[in-house]
Write the structure tokens for this entry.
Amino acid sequence: MSDTTQQFVLSPGPHLHTEESTSKIMWWVNGSLAPAALWGVFVFGLGALAVIVAAIAGSVLTEYAAQRVMGRRPTLGDGSAVCTGLLMALTVSPNLIWWQAFLGGVFAIALGKMIFGGLGFNLFNPALLGRAFLMATFPLQMTSGWAAPRPWFGAPLDAVTTATPLAVLKEQGLEAAIRLVQSPVGLWNALALGFRPGSIGEVSLVLIALGAGILLARRIITLAIPLSVIAGLLLSTLHTGLPVLHLMSGGLWLGAFYMATDYVTSPSVTRAQIVFGLMIGVLTGIIRVYGGYPEGICYAILIANSMAPALDLWFKPKRAAIAGSPS
Amino acid sequence: MSETTEKPPGALQLLLNGIFSENPVFRLALSLCPAVAVTTTVANGFILGVAVLAVQVLSSLTVAIARGVIHPRVRIPVYTIIIAVWVSAIDMTLAAFVPALYAQVGLYIKLIVAFAIIISRLEVFASRQPLVPSFWDAMGMGLGFMLALMVIGALREVLGAGAFFGIPLFKTKPLLFFALPAGGFFSIALLMAFFNVLERKLTGGTSKPAAGGHHG
């Protein structure tokens, strides 16, 4: 108003900041994925390492190139491109050739993220879009001839076949899935410890649970989405009599804890998150039991992603004000 | 769309208008359904493009000649009948002379009756303009559609099947994704973005992006 001394600084909120930042969260996520990734390399060998490195390189280089073209400040340090590449690599078959994984990373970032305007604007989870692209482009490497675990440990090697437990379950039934690892106990062990064919990062439930536990403890993610995904899957597979076996797939855990909880592509209202999670779980069950793929969580999450903005709108918290009153 | 109806632009301008600045697929976003469906190869895009070109030119000419006697209230049914007549003629001709290609795109040839681009050119141009400009407009739009389909087809055939006009370029299929319907959507979107950027560069950033789609 006048030239009196300025005494109060008025600025719009928020006024209190936490120490959390995008980059800090992203690096925690990456770090919590490291055990599962290293285990994947240990189980499947150097081919898996090449896939992981190439996928991350594809994502990071594409993000850098896109930001240069768009005239933006490169934000590679925030770790989100690394996260996309790493998550995508963990959901693909170790059979992939490195340049295929690289292309997946390029697609995920270029058409899954940067084309919408970058971090925070994308509608779909970029890592899953990359995976869907790889699935459509290299179906042979992605779905057949699953790499057998390398013989570094003695025990469950008789179990080596070239189909994942879920694929065997889908095509030949429970008896065949149990025969895969010779005994029901062996099946549980194989699913939990990771000496089994599968995607690079999904083989060990224990290590995924460890990573998810870190994220939960740091309050980076909450339980609303993962629990409702699991509940949805239970609901939709109950009638098959094998809901627990369906729950033992690492893909479900990676999806429920890491992909479905992506801040950008999931609703932020808790009630909306529960509906979102249930939707993913039920769709996953339907795809697994009736659909064409043994594992359906990738497509279930992508479909639910498209609903996230609407869900947030429908479950918007009511303002505690009388309609028509001055706001 | 050309807003002045008194003095139509020249032949060359009309022709280039249909091919570049108002390209049916990339700029007007019309008839995207066949543009996704048939463009798995260049040859398929070419044959459908030829059919659309012929139907567009013949229908535009017919409407331009008969526009004095078409009552405005029943013009859409009349246009549809005119298009249907020419589509039937082209359909039978292609079935007789190129049966192999017809087997691939025959379904879509019949669907040309419902293509948005053809009836929209009749409505906005041929029904208001004399014979000669209508001919050039139809040629431009038809060629623009054909070229667009061939560009999409080329991209998808090279990337998806590793071939060009049926001639194998690579030993393997490089990116199967582009041969699938999803790849068709992505190809068109990427090319549309490319043409928008090109247009903005050439016109100095004044042109508006492609009009919203009207499927059909």
In short: The radius of gyration of chain B is 18 Å. Chain B has one domain: 11-203. DSSP finds eight helices and two strands in chain B.
